[in-house]
Amino acid sequence: MAKIRASCPTCGDVELTTNDVVLRICGDDNSGTYTFTCPVCEASVVKPAEQHILDLLAASGVRVVVWTLPAELSERPSGEPFTHDDLLDFHAMLEDDSVLEEALAALVNGS
Q1: Distance CA 96, CA 105 (A)
Q2: Domains held by the chain: number
């Protein structure tokens, strides 16, 4: 099992095994990070990684998790932009208990 040296922001350099590290690679743009739990302070550590580091860790046997960007990032909203007046109206609605009761009732009833 390969030994991996990484850096904890609190403890400094720590030694890990391939079982201690997980690669997370975005399937959409191939950007990636590696993550581990510090063996000294037990903090979760996430570090960005360049492609050659990702390749090296994967070749060493580190578990790879591929994820994709949410579809909502490519969606374009329609309608008028949300304005400051809309925010003020929403705030006023939140202060009115009857409006909140109606909205909650609509959610419960599926309307």
Answers
A1: 14
A2: 2
